[in-house]
Structures are given as C-alpha cells and as structure tokens.
C-alpha cells in the first residue's frame, strides 16, 4: 500500500527523504512526501480553513515583507499550502500518514488535518515520534547541527516508517473538535501543556523581552534564546525580532538595526 507522507516543514521533509533512501526502507521508497508550511502556534486562526488572507497578512507583517520585497512570495507560499491541503481532501482513496512529535506546531497541524479529513477518517494515519522538538530540528542544514543527534533523529524517522498506525474515528472527531475550538478562541499564541493547549498573548512575549533584555547591547537572537530557555516562551526568532521592532517603535527597547531585516541586530532596554 502506498502512503502519502505529510510533514511539517522542509527540514522534516529532508530527514524523511534521507530515511526513505536507506536500504531498510526500500519498500516505502515510492511513497510521496508532502510538505506543509505555517507555524500555527502564533497568529490568527479563526477563518484559516476558509481563507488564508489573515495568515498571509500576519506573516507579511512579522517578516517585514514590504521592506524585503517578499509580499508576493508569502502570498504564493500560502496558495501552495492551501492547494496541498485541498488535494489531500479531494483524493477519496489514498492513505495519508502525518508525521508528528509532541511539539505544539505538529500537534496543531495534526488537529487541522483531522478536521480537513473528518468526513473520510479512515484515510488518516499517524507516525508519532517521541520528542518535544520538531522532527526536522536537527537536519544537517540547521546551524545547530550535531552529527550524533542527527543520526539518532534519522534512526527514529527510519523506525517510524515501520510504525504507521491508523487514527481511530473517535479520536479524529475529538481532534477536529479541538481544532474548531482553537479557531474560535483565536489567541495570539498557543502553547501545549500536557496535551492541552494554553492561550497566550503577544503582550506576554513583550513583557518577557523587556524583563530579559538588559541595558547593555546584546544580539536580539541571544534575547530570543533567553526567552525560550527561561520565560516559557517557545516562539521563533522571527516572532521575537518582530516584537522587538514593535517595542522599539514605542520607545521601550533600543535597536541598532532592524531585527526583522538584519539577523545581527542588537537590542537593549532603555535605561
């Protein structure tokens, strides 16, 4: 049986491609791999399944699309994402398997897929990797690449190819209902706490940034790392850079450049 493998992000797809190329997985080598993109842990969700407009606008602001000439690129990326989701839904016969860890972004996408495939639940399967980090985090192209950790991740993915499991109709219904509830809540930030999603706000990220910034200059990427380590704020560098820019615009932080555009930007708290 051929499965369409759905993964969250390019790094996860690269790792899965490596695993499929291993001799032990020759039987699965013809399976297609589908990549979805969008960090569902942040930004508006309410009308996401009807239109990508709000998501496009959100990421254009976060990534400084206007200044970087990326507006159309982001619009096109979401169009591709939506087309991929519709293709998965339209195919009434093909088996779909979603790869995920316990990471909030993966769990949100699992719920979205359950919602989109709720009328054909027999098609949805899963491969659950026991990790709190995204599958592709230790891909070879990642700046924090570690050879041993990458090998372990590749082994886990390879083992996963032999552990495809169907998702029960009851569980799919529950996941789809959770997705609808999350869309209605429409919080700024979504965090996963022991299988339950907790809501957050950008104001909380702002408060943490002001707390962990100092009056001495530091790279904004260092501040982002501090937030993830100490402030229970598992958000991306892009989100932290955007919030630093917003805080600087109101005079609460000082920047020596634009963190949305320049990765080397430094930040400090105004004295």
Automatic annotation (TrEMBL):
Domain DUF1835 positions: 5-128
Span of domain DUF3658: 164-259
Organism, scientific name: Robbsia andropogonis
InterPro entries: DUF1835 (IPR014973), DUF3658 (IPR022123)
Superkingdom of source: Bacteria
Name this polypeptide is given: DUF1835 domain-containing protein
Pfam family, one: DUF3658
């Amino acid at each position: 049986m051929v499965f369409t493998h759905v993964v969250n992000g390019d790094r996860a797809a690269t790792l899965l491609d490596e695993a499929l190329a291993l001799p032990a997985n020759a039987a699965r080598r013809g399976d297609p791999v589908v990549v979805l993109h969008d960090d569902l842990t942040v930004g508006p969700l309410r009308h996401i399944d009807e239109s990508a407009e709000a998501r496009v606008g959100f990421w254009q602001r976060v990534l400084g699309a206007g200044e970087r000439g990326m507006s159309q690129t982001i619009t096109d990326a979401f169009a591709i994402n939506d087309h991929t989701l519709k293709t998965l839904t339209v195919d009434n016969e093909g088996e779909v398997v979603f790869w995920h860890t316990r990471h909030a972004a993966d769990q949100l996408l699992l719920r979205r897929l359950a919602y989109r495939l709720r009328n054909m639940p027999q098609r949805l399967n899963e491969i659950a990797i026991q990790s709190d980090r995204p599958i592709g985090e230790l891909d070879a192209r990642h700046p924090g690449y570690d050879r041993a950790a990458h090998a372990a991740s590749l082994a886990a993915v390879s083992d996963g190819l032999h552990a495809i499991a169907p998702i029960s109709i009851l569980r799919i219904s529950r996941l789809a209902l959770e997705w609808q509830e999350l869309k209605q809540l429409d919080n700024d930030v979504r965090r996963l706490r022991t299988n339950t999603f907790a809501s957050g706000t950008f104001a909380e990220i702002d408060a943490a940034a002001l707390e962990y910034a100092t009056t001495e200059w530091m790279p904004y990427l260092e501040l982002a790392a501090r937030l993830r380590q100490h402030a229970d704020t598992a958000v991306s560098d892009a989100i932290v850079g955007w919030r630093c820019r917003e805080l600087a615009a109101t005079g609460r932080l000082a920047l020596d450049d634009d963190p949305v555009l320049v990765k080397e930007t430094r930040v400090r708290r105004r004295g």
